Amino acid sequence: MSTQTPDDDAPDQRLHPWSWLFVLLMQLRQFLLPLVALVVFGNRGDRDEMWSNLAALVVIVVLVAISILQYLTYHYRIGRDAISVRSGVVSRNRREIPFARIHNVVVHQNPLHRMFNVAELRLESAGGNRPEAEMRVLRLDQALALEQLVRQRGQQPVAAADPGDEATPALPADDVLLQLDTADVVRIGLLSDRGWVVVLALFGASYQLFPRDTVNDAIEYGGRQAFGYANHLHPATWVWVVAALVLVVGFWVTLRVLSVAMALLRYHGFRLTEHERRLTVASGLLTRMRTSVARRRIQAWTLRESALQRWFKRRHLRIDIAAGVSTNGERRDLRELAPLATPQACDALVQHLLPQLQWPPPQWNAVPQRGWWRLCLPALVIVPLLASGAVWEVGPWGALLLAWLPWSALRAHRTMARMGYHLDARYVAVRGGWWQRWWRFAELDKLQALRLQRSPLDRWLGTSSVWLDTAGAHGSVGLCLRYLPEDEARAVFERLNAAFVTRRVGR
Fold this sequence. Notes:
Elements (H helix, E strand, L loop, with lengths): L18 H24 L6 H25 L1 E4 L3 E6 L5 E6 L5 E6 L1 H6 L1 E7 L8 E7 H13 L22 E5 L2 H9 L4 H15 L2 H22 L3 H31 L3 E5 L2 E6 L4 E7 L3 E8 L1 H5 L3 E7 L14 E6 L1 H11 L11 E2 L10 H18 L9 H15 L1 E4 L3 E6 L4 E7 L3 E7 L2 H6 L1 E8 L9 E6 H21 L1
Helix pairs in contact: 1-2, 5-8, 6-8
């Protein structure tokens, strides 16, 4: 922990007077199911209803008391170089957070926050699984002013003043790097499969809320009723085909509608801005999220495009940053710079934020095609086993599973043909995928570790892979130069290692 202390003359400040209410609601959400179970199941049988209701009331009163005590004991002070936070009911804690240590600022507003014109502020540092400080809640103008102070890194004299004070100087207007209108957000939903998240969540919730046998019986009973009614009508074969097509199309349209709805909830009003080498993203329909991060905290970059996105000439740009990771499905940091944009817009955004690099690379180094079959080895082993089991269970129709093998071989060959890497004095980049294409790159100064890896199959084929790690790397695509010839892989590893050592010595 830093030894810096905030300005002693700066006054202690409290959260918003209604902050205890938001803390209470958060706690009630955590205890909602136990409270409902206590009231519902406690009133069954010969038990006195008064005791179960009284117990629930006592729990609620205790939660209200804890929420008010948390409000009364939470103080923060803004100094020239740091923020001091004092909190705790039984165990008192004091935390000093230097401005230079704050890597990410999140201003969160759900619909209830917007009704009260307040916001939740989170200050995050590199590598932490929890924010350095969570302020539930501040006035919206105070939260935005405190975010402004973090941007200024405490260099302005105003750092010792009340963030809501009118003397706080306004920053110059931010440069807008990317802005999505409603049509762009709808396009995100149409070109994504986010609707599956809702469908799977509904199935999961049904099995959680109702007994599994009840759900299975309902599905089975509904299916029997539908097929029984259809058979009673004695439809022709073409009617069955049309009905099946209508069901498939209807399900697909439902998925698209759900995907568009989720995209609107998350990306409505998306706006990427820049001020003094700091990026800020604001988005959300019901829940507004505003996150900011310094450009120097960006560790790696990833461009992706699905087949559907490629047909409509769109891509997705994502970054890895040296800050806390998301937990419990909660968006805590800035990850997406461009949820969906044209390839030209994505390339221009990368070139603007990394002017010292040349993107896209002028030339990619290809990976030798021999050994392409290694990419479909899992299918060569698993699919015949599944087909054998299917033939045993349903007869010759189970052999249709073998049709997956030609597709797997084609995909493996095309994927290996598209693999490549680029390496120069400033950055390293890799590309891969065929049906789902991606590009991933990082500056050499951001590399944290190198690894040369050879599997038994690599030793047989005379190949190796070079793995690269950066701080805060949480992408689904690894930064790895795969399946290079042994001599080439060792040469690349030595070159990267020399740059890695030079950087360490320079520090």
